[in-house]
Amino acid sequence: MQRKFLISGGGTGGHIFPAVAVAQLLQQEYPGCDILFVGASNRMEMEKVPQEGFKIIGLDVMGLRRAISPVNLLVLWKFIKAYFKSKTIIKEFNPDCVIGTGGYASLAVLYAASGMDKKTLIWEGNGFAGLTNKILAKRVNIICTGFPDMETVFPGEKVRFTGNPVRENLSNIRNKSESCKFFGLNPDKPVLFITGGSLGAKSINLAIQKGLNQLEKAGIQVIWQTGKNFTAESEGRNGIMAMTFLREMEYGYGAADLVISRAGALSMAEIAVCGKAALLVPSPNVTDDHQTKNALQFSKLGAALMVKDADAMNTLVNKAIETLGNKHLIESMQKALKQVARPNATTAIVAEIKNLITS
């Protein structure tokens, strides 16, 4: 019997990457299965998902304005149309399970599926429940979470702490000696790894640029992924490796004694799986300030330290130097990370799907 899976998620890489990872593992578990994606017609999933070899259908949807706005009337109208289109798609495709990983389209698809007596599962990667998943929580069968203790925001009997999927090559990072050799760095000296994603993080980049002299004087080596929107002025500096993009992230994490990163769910999952102490600088430009809530979750566990975006220019480099000089603190954070690390998150999510469709 050929299994069918309908997956809806998109808008950002944080929704698309886990959805694709789950789809790829489902193909391994159910050879020959039929997988269909549904996304927002004007968002990046319409390009990224087909690049991974999957079919996708677009819905004309848009995000709710949090302030009172006449635009929300249009949002509601588009949702109603997307809801009925989703019902048609589900009826024609007849999936064994409908899976949501967040994003505008996910609400319409999972809302429709849950009313059609379909097996449903959603994934919430952040330590703070998004509006879509809050609405869907009472209707779906299973809720997979990237953070522990989410029973306080979701119905407890539905919650499964699976963790967040990470890139496969990070499940087995390189050791420090091998990683430092890759960058031409000295493995006997401390290494600071800065990553702000493919676009970069402006506040982090400006703070690091300002503090390069301090870092050099402190004997700290730097691996700095700036993102494409920033050009580092690091030429001629000893032990400062700056690049726009680092494909071999397993070497970046492998070399690092301390990581500086934004606090997106997937970045934090990578930090946890790699077991690296971190300074988290939450982006202020995200819905519901969810990166701050993510960072606070790790901070409360003792797994990371948080630096506010507005304070980064004046405090980030000093905090990095101070932290790297405190071996006990580094080891304490590494130990705490083991509580939240889930290197087999994708496998755990797919296991929940398998249990659901056979129950």
Structure, described:
The protein has 359 residues and is of the alpha/beta class. The protein has 2 domains: 4-166 and 343-358, Rossmann fold; 168-337, Glycogen Phosphorylase B (Rossmann fold, 3-Layer(aba) Sandwich). The chain is 43% helix and 16% strand. It is built from 13 helices and 13 strands. The chain has helices spanning 13-29, 45-51, 71-93, 104-114, 131-136, 176-183, 202-217, 249-255, 265-274, 290-301, 312-324, 327-337, 345-358; strands spanning 4-8, 34-40, 55-59, 97-100, 119-124, 142-145, 159-161, 191-195, 221-225, 240-243, 258-261, 278-280, 305-306. A 7-stranded parallel β-sheet has the order 3-2-1-4-5-6-7, sandwiched between helices. The protein has a 6-stranded parallel β-sheet with strand order 10-9-8-11-12-13, sandwiched between helices. Helix 9 (265-274) links the parallel strand 11 (258-261) and strand 12. The longest helix has 23 residues, at 71-93. The two termini are 16 Å apart. The mean pLDDT is 92.
Biggest β-sheet: count, sense, barrel?
A: 7 strands, parallel
Overall strand count: 13
Give the overall pLDDT as a whole number: 92
Shape annotation: elongated
Gap between N and C termini: 16 Å
Strand order of the largest sheet: 3-2-1-4-5-6-7
Q: How many structural domains are formed by the residues?
A: 2
Structure class: alpha/beta
CATH superfamily of the largest domain: Glycogen Phosphorylase B
Report the oligomer: single chain
Helical percentage: 40-55%
Low-confidence stretches: none
Q: Which CATH class of the largest domain is shown?
A: Alpha Beta
Fraction of residues in β-strands: 15-25%
Number of helices: 13
